[in-house]
Design goal:
The protein has six helices and seven strands. By secondary structure, it is of the alpha+beta class.
Length: 188
Amino acid sequence: MELVDPDVRFHRSFLSAVEEFVAAGEARYAGLPVFGWGGVPGDEFPREAIQDPAGFAALVRVVVEAKKPFAARPAGYVPWTELWMADGDEYLGRITLRHELTDALLTWGGHIGYAVRPSARRRGHASAALAGMLEVAWRRGIDPVLVTCDVDNLGSRRVIEHAGGAFEDVREGKRRYWVPSRVPTDGG
């Protein structure tokens, strides 16, 4: 597994992953930002829109541009870096680093969120992706990072704790952890 920038080459595989998320009752993890804010081309991406290669290309453009400080985004949204988990041309999932915390993100969203497609779970992809994104956070000067998970998501809890997450509390059904983005080397 490698972390890569979103790319149109994943079109077929991404669509397959969306169907997996929907079939598992996890449509919210499918990676389709549906902002509903208007005024920006490609600002909403229902499943039907991304079936078309041009619609999928618009989704990729919005996600890639999101890391730029002055990119168009809805009120209350912060810049974010999204990378996709991939095995060759196979889309396995996504991980997102939010560059700042709003009050809502401080409560339940955190700096980092990730989702692995159901058929690719329990293979270490989330752990590897989190380790890679922690490096991105470190390079951006974000340390420590807040990572949250649902109180009943034991798999995600293990991923976060394995990455060094220090449990702080539970808020609105989310376990909140602070994870160091800098992993100490032998020299400290």
